[in-house]
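[step 3/7] fold_predict: job queued, chain A
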Amino acid sequence: MNAKIIRQTNTKIIAILQKQDSLKLEVTSEKGDVYEYDYLRQRSSKYSGQTTTSKILQVGYTSDIKYILSSDHTLKFYNFEEEIFEMPINTLNFSNIIVFPQSCDLLVICVSTTDPDKFDVYKISNILTSEKKNVAMIRLLRLQGFTEQKLHTGNIMNFECVKNILFVGYEDGSLIRYLFNNEFNEILEMNVVFDFERFGNETHEDRDHPVLKIEYCIEQNAVFFTHAKVAEIYYYRLDDFTIEKVLLPENISINHIVSINDSVYFSCWENNFIYKLDSQKNITVFYSISIKPNIQLVDIDPVADTSELHPYKDLDRTLSKVSCMYKVSKDDIQHQYLGLESKVLMKRFSKVIQNDYLYIGLESGNLIELSF
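[step 4/7] structure written:
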């Protein structure tokens, strides 16, 4: 395995994305700075991106539309650099949102603006048309949530959508499955996939283990979900609707998950490790991120008592935390490689296409590339 730092921004990297049929990754900081990284040519460049006065929480692409969720409770849609639509979003929950295409429209699933334990479904009509005229927001569903009285879910923490199934993770650690019709304007069925009272060892009222991450891994056809400070990672198989769990080395809070081939890679809040979960369900430390500080430590008073901790000595530990991850597989690269017309470029890139790549964005603004 080879590891290298690609680019250092000034602030936390919030997203690593790839446009459809593009040879470049787009790296976005929480302040809106955007870097493009050409992973075939191993070359990076900066462009301005969208100007923002608030922190960026989530960035994504759907077809040619870019959307940005910000801490000022707005979700904005862009066509290239032009803003074409804006809608209000509740960002107090720290939950993600779901955005996906449906014909010429976009569907948005987000936490309700009034009740943090409920969600709404919206349609942004005509936004994917070539003219992008008469773009409007239509609410398809309002204040949806689980109604079983015995289950007090608390606030919504995370969403994941697989086709017409929405998985919602809650503050009490439960995971609820909502089956929608094709139009997403009706819930046909809802089921409890997991709660600690039935599947775990914690009391049902315990709010110390909220769902932190839900991630669908297509290679395993399973939905992985994790909790704060719990020594297990769970996955829900979509082929037979069963739950399995894998014991973790310690009580950690997994915050990012990526699957490559038959393995799953994840990071956590408590340390600087990237873990690997292989097909045999063995967990190993795949990579350890250096906590060498990015700043020079200078004593405030060189002749004073040095037994006390320097006020910035722990800063590097925070800055080396993982803020996002993104994969580029051999199949992704070879698809782009076969489209090259230049024989010179094909020869130059022949070694690049033999590896899988895992890109790790850090709180410090550093971007790490792992090739293996």
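[step 5/7] annotate
The longest strand covers residues 243-252.
The two ends are 5 Å apart (CA to CA).
exit 0
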